[in-house]
Amino acid sequence: METLDAILQRRSIRKFTNQEIPKEIVEKILSSAVHAPSAKNRQPWKFIVITGQEKNDMIKAISKGIENEKSGKGLLPNSLCYISGTENTLLAMKQAPITVLVFNTEENGLWSTANAVERKLFDIANIQSIGAAIENMLLTATDLGIGSLWICDIFFAYREICQWLNEENQLIAAISFGYANECPDSRPRKRLEDVVEWR
Fold it and tell me: Is 199 a domain residue?
Protein backbone atom coordinates (compact mmCIF):
# COMPACT_ATOMS: atom_id res chain seq x y z
CA MET A 1 0.00 0.00 0.00
CA GLU A 2 1.21 3.50 -0.80
CA THR A 3 1.84 5.74 2.21
CA LEU A 4 -0.84 8.25 1.15
CA ASP A 5 -3.35 5.41 0.74
CA ALA A 6 -2.62 4.21 4.28
CA ILE A 7 -3.10 7.76 5.60
CA LEU A 8 -6.45 8.13 3.83
CA GLN A 9 -7.69 4.63 4.71
CA ARG A 10 -6.77 4.70 8.40
CA ARG A 11 -9.77 4.78 10.70
CA SER A 12 -10.33 4.71 14.45
CA ILE A 13 -11.77 1.23 14.97
CA ARG A 14 -14.02 0.56 17.97
CA LYS A 15 -15.36 -2.87 17.00
CA PHE A 16 -12.94 -5.77 16.63
CA THR A 17 -13.29 -9.45 15.79
CA ASN A 18 -11.89 -12.02 18.23
CA GLN A 19 -9.22 -13.13 15.75
CA GLU A 20 -5.74 -13.07 17.25
CA ILE A 21 -2.97 -11.08 15.55
CA PRO A 22 0.13 -13.15 14.71
CA LYS A 23 3.14 -12.11 16.78
CA GLU A 24 5.22 -11.35 13.68
CA ILE A 25 2.65 -8.76 12.57
CA VAL A 26 2.67 -7.12 15.99
CA GLU A 27 6.46 -6.98 15.85
CA LYS A 28 6.32 -5.29 12.43
CA ILE A 29 3.99 -2.66 13.86
CA LEU A 30 6.31 -2.09 16.85
CA SER A 31 9.36 -2.01 14.60
CA SER A 32 7.82 0.82 12.62
CA ALA A 33 7.46 2.77 15.88
CA VAL A 34 11.14 2.59 16.76
CA HIS A 35 12.01 3.89 13.28
CA ALA A 36 10.17 7.15 13.89
CA PRO A 37 12.17 10.37 14.01
CA SER A 38 12.91 11.74 17.47
CA ALA A 39 14.33 14.96 18.82
CA LYS A 40 18.12 14.67 19.17
CA ASN A 41 17.60 10.93 18.54
CA ARG A 42 16.56 10.50 22.19
CA GLN A 43 14.01 7.81 21.20
CA PRO A 44 12.02 8.55 24.39
CA TRP A 45 9.56 5.71 24.05
CA LYS A 46 8.75 2.47 25.78
CA PHE A 47 5.99 0.09 24.68
CA ILE A 48 4.25 -2.46 26.89
CA VAL A 49 2.21 -4.98 24.89
CA ILE A 50 -0.83 -6.26 26.77
CA THR A 51 -2.39 -9.58 25.70
CA GLY A 52 -4.19 -12.61 27.16
CA GLN A 53 -4.78 -12.61 30.93
CA GLU A 54 -2.90 -9.34 31.31
CA LYS A 55 -5.61 -7.70 29.20
CA ASN A 56 -8.17 -8.63 31.88
CA ASP A 57 -5.93 -7.06 34.54
CA MET A 58 -5.58 -3.90 32.43
CA ILE A 59 -9.37 -3.67 32.08
CA LYS A 60 -9.73 -4.00 35.87
CA ALA A 61 -7.19 -1.21 36.44
CA ILE A 62 -8.97 1.11 33.99
CA SER A 63 -12.38 0.26 35.44
CA LYS A 64 -11.04 1.12 38.90
CA GLY A 65 -9.78 4.44 37.57
CA ILE A 66 -13.19 5.24 36.07
CA GLU A 67 -14.88 4.45 39.38
CA ASN A 68 -12.40 6.62 41.27
CA GLU A 69 -13.12 9.49 38.88
CA LYS A 70 -16.87 9.09 39.38
CA SER A 71 -16.47 9.10 43.17
CA GLY A 72 -14.35 12.26 43.14
CA LYS A 73 -11.04 10.53 43.91
CA GLY A 74 -9.58 10.86 40.41
CA LEU A 75 -7.15 13.21 38.69
CA LEU A 76 -9.62 14.87 36.31
CA PRO A 77 -12.59 16.21 38.28
CA ASN A 78 -13.34 18.87 35.65
CA SER A 79 -13.52 16.30 32.85
CA LEU A 80 -16.28 14.03 34.14
CA CYS A 81 -18.41 14.96 31.14
CA TYR A 82 -16.12 12.66 29.11
CA ILE A 83 -16.50 9.57 31.34
CA SER A 84 -19.22 7.99 29.18
CA GLY A 85 -16.87 8.19 26.19
CA THR A 86 -14.19 6.51 28.29
CA GLU A 87 -16.57 3.68 29.15
CA ASN A 88 -17.27 3.20 25.43
CA THR A 89 -13.54 3.14 24.75
CA LEU A 90 -13.17 0.46 27.41
CA LEU A 91 -15.64 -1.73 25.51
CA ALA A 92 -13.43 -1.45 22.41
CA MET A 93 -10.34 -2.31 24.46
CA LYS A 94 -12.09 -5.43 25.77
CA GLN A 95 -12.68 -6.62 22.20
CA ALA A 96 -9.20 -5.85 20.84
CA PRO A 97 -6.76 -8.75 21.26
CA ILE A 98 -3.80 -6.43 21.86
CA THR A 99 -3.30 -3.06 23.48
CA VAL A 100 0.04 -1.28 23.49
CA LEU A 101 0.67 1.16 26.33
CA VAL A 102 3.09 3.92 25.38
CA PHE A 103 5.40 5.58 27.89
CA ASN A 104 7.80 8.52 27.83
CA THR A 105 11.12 7.35 29.27
CA GLU A 106 12.39 10.93 29.58
CA GLU A 107 9.80 11.87 32.18
CA ASN A 108 8.85 10.17 35.45
CA GLY A 109 5.25 10.19 36.59
CA LEU A 110 2.90 13.03 35.74
CA TRP A 111 4.12 16.12 33.97
CA SER A 112 6.90 18.05 35.59
CA THR A 113 5.90 21.10 37.61
CA ALA A 114 9.19 22.76 36.74
CA ASN A 115 8.65 26.09 35.00
CA ALA A 116 11.99 26.17 33.28
CA VAL A 117 11.49 27.02 29.61
CA GLU A 118 14.22 24.63 28.50
CA ARG A 119 12.63 21.70 30.33
CA LYS A 120 9.22 22.52 28.85
CA LEU A 121 10.67 22.57 25.36
CA PHE A 122 12.35 19.20 25.90
CA ASP A 123 9.01 17.82 27.08
CA ILE A 124 7.24 19.13 23.98
CA ALA A 125 9.93 17.66 21.71
CA ASN A 126 9.70 14.25 23.42
CA ILE A 127 5.90 14.18 23.08
CA GLN A 128 6.23 15.06 19.40
CA SER A 129 8.67 12.18 18.96
CA ILE A 130 6.33 9.73 20.66
CA GLY A 131 3.44 11.00 18.53
CA ALA A 132 5.47 10.19 15.42
CA ALA A 133 6.10 6.67 16.73
CA ILE A 134 2.38 6.19 17.40
CA GLU A 135 1.42 7.41 13.92
CA ASN A 136 3.96 5.01 12.40
CA MET A 137 2.22 2.16 14.23
CA LEU A 138 -1.24 3.24 13.05
CA LEU A 139 -0.18 3.50 9.42
CA THR A 140 1.73 0.22 9.49
CA ALA A 141 -1.27 -1.52 11.04
CA THR A 142 -3.51 -0.11 8.29
CA ASP A 143 -1.03 -1.30 5.66
CA LEU A 144 -1.09 -4.81 7.18
CA GLY A 145 -4.90 -4.99 7.37
CA ILE A 146 -5.08 -4.42 11.13
CA GLY A 147 -7.52 -1.99 12.75
CA SER A 148 -6.34 0.39 15.45
CA LEU A 149 -7.64 2.85 18.04
CA TRP A 150 -5.40 5.57 19.46
CA ILE A 151 -6.59 6.08 23.05
CA CYS A 152 -6.10 9.00 25.43
CA ASP A 153 -9.04 8.06 27.66
CA ILE A 154 -6.52 6.09 29.72
CA PHE A 155 -5.76 9.34 31.56
CA PHE A 156 -8.89 8.69 33.59
CA ALA A 157 -6.98 5.71 35.00
CA TYR A 158 -3.45 7.12 34.89
CA ARG A 159 -2.50 6.23 38.47
CA GLU A 160 -4.26 2.85 38.41
CA ILE A 161 -2.50 1.73 35.22
CA CYS A 162 0.93 2.84 36.42
CA GLN A 163 0.41 1.20 39.82
CA TRP A 164 -0.74 -2.06 38.20
CA LEU A 165 2.35 -2.14 35.97
CA ASN A 166 4.66 -0.74 38.67
CA GLU A 167 5.74 1.71 35.97
CA GLU A 168 7.40 5.04 36.85
CA ASN A 169 7.73 6.42 33.32
CA GLN A 170 5.14 8.90 32.08
CA LEU A 171 2.10 7.25 30.49
CA ILE A 172 1.32 8.94 27.16
CA ALA A 173 -1.29 6.85 25.32
CA ALA A 174 -2.64 3.43 24.47
CA ILE A 175 -3.32 1.87 21.09
CA SER A 176 -5.63 -1.10 20.71
CA PHE A 177 -5.09 -3.36 17.69
CA GLY A 178 -7.24 -6.04 16.13
CA TYR A 179 -8.99 -7.13 12.97
CA ALA A 180 -11.75 -4.59 12.30
CA ASN A 181 -15.38 -5.60 12.65
CA GLU A 182 -16.62 -2.33 11.18
CA CYS A 183 -15.88 0.01 8.27
CA PRO A 184 -16.52 3.53 9.55
CA ASP A 185 -16.69 6.47 7.18
CA SER A 186 -14.01 9.12 7.30
CA ARG A 187 -14.67 11.76 9.96
CA PRO A 188 -15.15 15.37 8.82
CA ARG A 189 -11.92 17.31 8.38
CA LYS A 190 -11.26 21.01 8.38
CA ARG A 191 -10.66 22.49 4.94
CA LEU A 192 -7.04 23.00 3.94
CA GLU A 193 -7.63 26.73 3.41
CA ASP A 194 -8.93 27.00 7.00
CA VAL A 195 -5.79 25.60 8.61
CA VAL A 196 -2.95 26.62 6.28
CA GLU A 197 -1.45 30.08 6.04
CA TRP A 198 0.98 30.80 3.20
CA ARG A 199 3.52 33.59 3.61
Answer: no
CATH of the domain at 132: 3.40.109.10
Domain holding 100, by residue range, is: 3-182
Three-state DSSP state, 171: strand
Answer yes or no: are the C-beta atoms of 34 and 43 closer than 8 Å.
Answer: yes
Any domain includes 137: yes
What's 45's DSSP letter? E
pTM: predicted TM-score of the whole model, two decimal places: 0.94
The tens-digit pLDDT sequence of the chain (199 residues) is 799 999 999 999 999 999 999 999 999 999 999 999 999 999 999 999 999 999 999 999 999 999 999 999 988 988 989 999 999 999 999 999 999 999 999 987 665 555 678 888 888 999 999 999 999 999 999 999 999 999 999 999 999 999 999 999 999 999 999 999 999 999 999 999 999 999 9
| 191 occurs within a structural domain | no
Question: Do the Cβ atoms of 141 and 57 come closer than 8 Å?
Answer: no
Does 91 fall in a domain?
yes
What does the alpha-carbon distance between residue 92 and residue 84 come to, in Å, rounded to a whole number?
13
What is the number of structural domains in the chain? 1
- Using CA atoms, how far apart are residues 41 and 190, in angstroms rounded to an integer? 32
